[in-house]
Amino acid sequence: MIHPHPFTPIVMLTVIFILFAGNTTAQTQSPAHMFQHTERLLREVHLIRQAQGVTEPAREPSVQTHKLPLHLYAKSLEVLEKTARAQQALGMSPVEVPLLPVRRLRSDEVFVLLETILKEVRRIKSHHKISGDIEEPEFLSDKSPADVYENLWRVSYLLDALTGPLTANHVFRNTQYIRAEIRLIADHLKVSLPEATPASLPQHITAADVLVEIFQNLYRVATFEQKIGLAALHPPQFPTGEIIPSDPYDASSLLLTELVRIKVELEITQPVSPLPLPEGKTSTEVYKQVLITEKHMETLLNHSS
Predict the structure, then answer these.
(1) Angle at CA of residue 22, ends 17 and 23, nearest 5°
(2) pTM (2 decimals)?
(3) 188 Cβ neighbours under 8 A, 6+ residues apart
């Protein structure tokens, strides 16, 4: 006759606890839990806007599809950067904003970053003694990564009223990051990039002109991704209504994210160096950088044919 070990019940309880805890951790990494966090962010930012007397409605993002943890992390970094700018504008010490990591990112890393953003937004509330607690948002189990991304974009738009509008300076810095990322990819593939300098530029360049060219580059990147066997980017809808610097900034940020995704696929681990925000840049100067990027992307495409 086999007698049970006296510690068997304890061991079994321990195993059950570990399994349950692991399952709980997995649940908190789900898109539904991340979406709930973004709903908390939306409500907290609305409270801050009300306390600051902001009445102008924020813009609405287009419907999003086909988003990965890398896209969510990149959009979260954008929101964290705007949170830092809001803190600085309100006389606080801003949170440090890292660059996008060059590796495959997991859902739990996105969740942790969302928790950081929520903490920093609530720090704004606490610093300015903004009273009122948000109503806890409903948990919606059917939410997807694309829903999380779309909500993060809403938070980003809402923060614009607290940070001041984005300018050509921000878009110009993104173009410099894009050029640096393309050069790293070209070096890895042993492709020589031409010294592409536009001979002449149209007069009176606007943010809309810049956005059109960035969208052209998004399609070039999608084509390049297909050629290297990577699931291709699904570019968003072209914005309707008035085009402002925030639009080319968003599009260039998405382009940057896709270039990092390409680097991860090609096993390029070298990151780009952080760049300071320039001053006094114009749409014409940004346009020139985007045209150079077009030539470089065409060179990469020709090499991969």
Answers:
(1) 100
(2) 0.87
(3) 266, 268
3-state helix, strand, coil in the chain (%, to 5): 60, 0, 40
Look up the domain containing 107 and give its range: 24-164
Q: Which residues of 40-77 are buried (b: 16+ CB within 10 A; e: fewer)?
A: bbbbbbebbbeeeebeeebbebeebeebbbbbbbbbbb
Q: Is residue 277 part of a domain?
A: yes
Looking at the fold, whether 128 and 173 belong to one and the same domain comes out as no
Domain membership flag for residue 263: yes
* Residues 157 and 174 reside in one and the same domain: no
Q: Are residues 147 and 281 located together in one domain of the fold?
A: no
Stretches in the chain below the pLDDT threshold 70:
1-28, 199, 305
Number of CB atoms found within 10 A of residue 103's CB: 14
pLDDT at residue number 63:
87
At 37-53, the pLDDT tens digits run 999 999 999 999 999 99
